[in-house]
Amino acid sequence: MDQFRTVLESPFTRLRDMMSPRLARMLPLLRPWLSLDGELRRYFRDPRVRLAMTFQSKYLGMSPFNCPSLFSILSFIEYEYGVFHPIGGCGAVSEAMARAAEDLGATFSLDDPVEEILFRGRKAVGVRSRSGVHECDALVINADFARAMTRLVPDALRPRWSDRKIARKRFSCSTYMLYLGLEGRCDDLAHHTIYLSRDYLGNLDDIERRHVLSADPSFYVQNACVTDPSLAPPGQSALYVLLPVTHQHENVDWSREAPAFRERALDQLAKVGLGDVRSRIVTERQVTPANWDVDHEIHLGATFNLAHNLSQMLYLRPRNRFEGLESVYLVGGGTHPGSGLPVIFESARITSKLVGADLGTAVPVGEDDGLLAPSRIEAGIPEGVDL
To answer: What's the rounded Cα separation, in Å, for the pair 11 and 19?
Structure first.
């Protein structure tokens, strides 16, 4: 565990961070030359068991056959320590963090889109938003990395991440989402349900190589109301349905495909006991890769950001203290350590420490407060439910 903590909780802001003796000693343990599936082959012969132990690679928008073995830590944490649900949903976590920030003196300007980052030379000195100009000592970007760079930072200021170079990078898959409000409870459906396509390898190829929609797509259903009834009105249920699909590609025109794919997604739900779902829908929202791209400003609709292949990780991923610019920092799935909400929170912890060090300001995070701190894992999440 300590070896993985070293990788996931260190910033990798300099090339020599990749060449440190400490990291070199870890290579036999991390085995970066193996995929997640390759690592699990050392322990499990049955491919079905390996799939059961590797579906967490989808948290990164990757297949277990391409995902680096480092991320076996995700499977380990889930099976060793469990999964927790914050009462009120993940939105409650964001609201609690906002209250904590306000208690420390932070202010928020909501519904105020940033239109331009203002530079003096290579130094960020502020932003221009709908409400006006806001000066800054340090600028932290939590927008989608590729979209923020191409929209807000002049191309000439970022030669390592120019528009041309970003276009050559590998990006994760996208997701097709259905948010369903249903009449009646779904108490026979678990909080988390994952269905794997009968042609799992073909489904992965459809997503990552052929860029087409599968006839039998894998999917995930969250029925959080079975744990937390506050998420829906009495006697009703709220379902979150996620189908991994290709990111935006010319092979799929979502303006034509979305209605038929919705029907396919609803048909799939019968495979987990929800054959009557159509007649129970009270309200719904559909989000396609095109919606992620256009409405939510996510490059290519790639909801898990840059892919997590080795050539786009650690020092080779956009750095938390963004290279080539002054006073610009990154958080989110596009920087180190990568995508997935707990890992994204870790990127914020890394970045906050860098900002504090650069500004000479104390940052109230301890050395044992990280993602993989034993005290953090064992304690769980206050006001949460162990699943």
So the answer is: 14
134-141 long-range Cβ contacts below 8 angstroms, 24+ apart: 134/109, 136/327, 137/327, 137/359, 138/327, 138/329, 138/355, 138/358, 138/359, 139/327, 139/328, 139/329, 140/329, 140/330, 140/331, 140/351, 140/355, 141/322, 141/328, 141/329, 141/330, 141/331, 141/332
Nearest Cα neighbor of 281 from 295, 299, 263, 297 is: 263
Report residue 299's pLDDT band, with 50, 70 and 90 as the boundaries: very high
pLDDT of residue 79: 85
The CA–CA distances, whole Å, from 239 to 82, 228, 282, 293, 366 equal 21, 12, 12, 23, 37
- 8 A C-beta contact, residue 310 and residue 32: yes
For the question of whether the overall pTM of this predicted structure is more than 0.85, the answer is: yes
pLDDT at residue 382, rounded to an integer: 47
Give the DSSP H/E element, type plus range, for residue 52.
helix 47-54
Report angle CA 68, 73, 79 to the nearest 5 degrees: 135
- Hey, what's the torsion of the CAs at 161, 36, 302, 10, to 10 degrees? -50
Q: What token pair was written down for 97? A: 């963090």
Note the pLDDT tens digit of each residue in 243-254.
999 999 999 999
b/e per residue 291-327 (b: at least 16 CB within 10 A): bbbeeeebbbbbbbbbbbeeebbbbebbbbbbeebbb
Digit-coded pLDDT (tens) for 140-171: 999 999 999 999 999 999 999 999 999 999 99
- Calculate the alpha carbon distances from 264 to 202, 213, 261, 270 in Å: 17, 10, 5, 10
- The closest alpha carbon to 248, from 161, 169, 175, belongs to 175
Q: Are 268 and 244 within 8 A, CB to CB?
A: no
Q: Which of 138, 140, 109, 116 is nearest to 125 (CA)?
A: 138
Domains (range + CATH), the chain: 174-299 (3.30.519)
Q: What does the pLDDT look like over 19-70, one tens digit per residue? A: 677 776 767 777 777 888 998 899 999 988 988 888 888 888 888 898 888 7
Confidence of residue 3 (pLDDT cuts 50, 70, 90): low
